[in-house]
Specification:
The protein is mainly alpha-helical. The protein folds into three domains: 147 residues, MgtE N-terminal fold (Alpha Horseshoe), CATH 1.25.60; 102 residues, CBS-domain, CATH 3.10.580; 164 residues, Tetracycline Repressor, domain 2, CATH 1.10.357. It is 69% helix and 6% strand. The strands form two sheets. The chain has a three-stranded mixed β-sheet. Helix 8 packs across helix 10, helix 15 packs across helix 16 and helix 20 runs antiparallel to helix 23. It starts with 7 loop residues before the first helix and ends with a helix.
Length: 488
């Protein structure tokens, strides 16, 4: 009898939930389409009661839609909104109850979130501020036009405004911008019983808090203590004796991506954040870190094809098309360069037609080789595994790997060329061209992201386009050049 997989029920539940959510999306879309059709039919009627009938039908449809939308979890409601075309999305957003809008906005992608915030009046945006922690509201405010952001902040209460402004003061990619500002601390000179009484005086504890942060009278971090140790330890024991004196902690000016990697590495659920004086000013929670990792993954997947993270799947055609112009233009330029390389050897191709059939293979295998190397290098940069001392080693290793693969696959393609065309010299040129282009691709795959990073550019956004230009142009140049020199 095979052992039962404890994760299986969770997986089945997740699949069932996703299926149910897709069904809900279809129901909402059907309701909105039906509402539009009914409104059009009623509008064609020419009776004195036309306006009344139209209003009643629209209200009935709106009530059903409102009920379905407001029963959804905020994350599920965000999924539905992101899956609707722009006009339907705006209509659905108006049906979301005001007290739920803040939590739903946080779950939305930035490309969908920004236009929905614009629909909100200043009063409604102030109401959202009351629903959210200051750091979360700061995430929304930073996407507003500068004039409107200042107007909204001016209407917040002094304490709330100060917290939001403090969150906005940190750079976007810093730990300070990611942290929560309500750390739960106890003094190290208290007993466990006194510390428990202190915590009871709070309104509540954050859901993701797994440890209590221990500080001295100056609020300087001394250690952390698990909730289990606090609740079940001897009441008379001092906190300083029960705490972990070597905690993992982060600085406000630390890199957010590095902090996210630390959470993953050390299996953290929460951790303190300190200022330059090591005073506790906030804390990081695992849900914030997971959101950060998901956002980074999303950016990388889009960046590899030249798209930013502000893309909206159902956004307006003109707006979406305009965002692709730069990268399409750059691709067109690199393709033109590759075509000019081919143009130089038109005479050679006319004399030996087999060259036209074989040269795409050389470019393609180079592109695949380079993409594998680029993916590894970008991952190394993201995880801070690459530095001045090991970059040369990585380059030598990738060249060695491409040399091995180039010899093997070049020889194989040479044999295939010989069988197809019966020409040993052509087979030799094909094998040599594949070998050389794979080596070039490996070198480009290492250098392109490293150079872009050194220039302060995002290596994800530009590496693939540069690599394609290099492997295509060099592949054609090497193959056609060798063929012209050795065969014609």
């Amino acid at each position: 009898m095979s052992p039962v997989d404890p994760a299986a029920p969770v997986t089945r539940h997740a699949l069932e939930h996703h299926t149910s959510l897709e069904a809900t999306l279809r129901e909402i879309q059907a309701l909105m389409e039906r509402q539009e059709v009914v409104s059009q039919l009623v509008a064609r009627e020419h009776t004195g009661k036309q306006e009344l009938v139209q209003a009643l039908v629209a209200r009935q449809q709106a009530v059903e839609l409102e009920t379905k939308l407001n029963r959804l979890h905020p994350a599920d409601a965000a999924f539905v909104l992101e899956s609707l075309p722009a006009e339907q999305r705006d209509a659905a957003w108006q049906l979301i109850r005001k007290e739920r809008r803040g939590s739903i906005l946080l779950e939305l992608a930035e490309s969908v979130q920004a236009p929905l915030i614009e629909i909100l009046a200043d009063d409604e945006l102030i109401a959202v501020a009351k629903q959210l922690p200051s750091t979360d509201f700061a995430d929304l405010v930073e996407n507003l036009p500068e004039e409107r952001a200042a107007r909204v902040l001016a209407r917040l209460e002094a304490g709330e405004r100060q917290q939001v402004q403090s969150a906005l003061a940190f750079p976007e990619d810093s730990v300070g911008a990611l942290m929560e500002m309500d750390p739960v601390t106890v003094r190290d000179d208290l007993t466990l019983e006194q510390a428990t009484a202190t915590l009871r005086g709070r309104r509540g504890l954050p859901e993701q808090l797994s440890v209590i942060f221990v500080v001295d009278r100056e609020n300087v971090l001394k250690g952390v203590m698990s909730l289990t140790r606090l609740l079940f330890g001897e009441p008379g024991v001092r906190v300083a004796e029960a705490m972990d004196a070597e905690p993992v902690y982060f600085s406000t000016n630390g890199n957010a991506d590095e902090a996210a990697q630390a959470f993953e590495r050390y299996d953290l659920i929460s951790a303190p954040v300190v200022n330059i004086h090591r005073q506790v000013v906030g804390w990081l929670s695992v849900d914030k870190v997971v959101d950060r990792l998901s956002e980074d993954s999303f950016k990388q997947s889009l960046g590899q094809v030249g798209l930013g993270d502000d893309v909206d799947l159902f956004g307006p055609v003109w707006q979406s098309g305009r965002k692709r112009w730069i990268w399409l233009g750059l691709n067109l330029f690199t393709a033109f360069v590759a075509s000019r390389v081919i143009g130089v050897f038109e005479g050679s191709i006319e004399k030996l037609a087999a060259l036209a059939a074989l040269m795409p293979i050389v470019a393609s295998i180079g592109g695949n080789t380079g993409n594998q190397t680029v993916a590894l290098v970008i991952r190394g940069i993201a995880l801070s595994q690459l530095n001045e001392s090991n970059r040369l080693y990585l380059l030598r290793k990738e060249v060695a790997i491409s040399t091995l693969n180039g010899l093997m696959w070049g020889f194989l393609m040479g044999v295939v060329t010989l069988l197809l065309y019966g020409s040993l010299p052509l087979a030799g040129v094909m094998a040599l061209a594949m070998f050389l282009n794979m080596v070039v691709a490996a070198i480009a795959g290492v250098l392109c992201p490293l150079i872009l990073e050194r220039m302060g550019r995002d290596p994800v956004m530009g590496s693939s386009i540069l690599l394609t230009a290099i492997t295509d142009s060099m592949g054609f140049l090497i193959f056609l050049g060798l063929a012209t020199a050795l065969l014609l």
